[in-house]
Amino acid sequence: MISIIKFSFNNLSQVLSIFLGSLTLILVGYMILTGNHPNKLINWSLSILGVSFVICLLTLSFAFLFCILRLKNVNLKLAKFWFETGLQFANGISTLALTFTLLGISLGIGELSISNLDISSINKTIGNLTNKFSMAFLTSVIGLPLSYLFRSILIIIYEHKILNEEHQLIENKY
Prior knowledge:
Layout: H1 2-34, H2 38-49, H3 51-73, H4 76-114, H5 122-173
């Protein structure tokens, strides 16, 4: 029982290290490219994309990284399970992106439909509308490529694992 807890804690700590290290590299890259403080990117992300999208995206990404780590450290029989589970998390990111795209468009249209369009309020209405549409399209711009990247990484790692296992079986025969 203790060995299982120790093994699980070790896996979670490795994933957390990779996850936080990746976030740090992204923030450092942002600082180098733009010269802005990372708080600016974080505040922009939370205000444009929304707290719920960011939290869901980070959670799905963390779960995906956990699947990658497990896939690399298990035998071929269990690898299929972690491959399929990782695919579901990667697909969850694209579903999340499309859901928030539709939500943003719906919120924008809803904002437009309840607005009293007259000369004095048109600027405010258009500002609110573009804010909702910006969230809508940016969630897809971020989520869909990230989902594609995650699926590609997962497939490459899984196929590499299969090829290594087959190669080892052939070598053991001879």
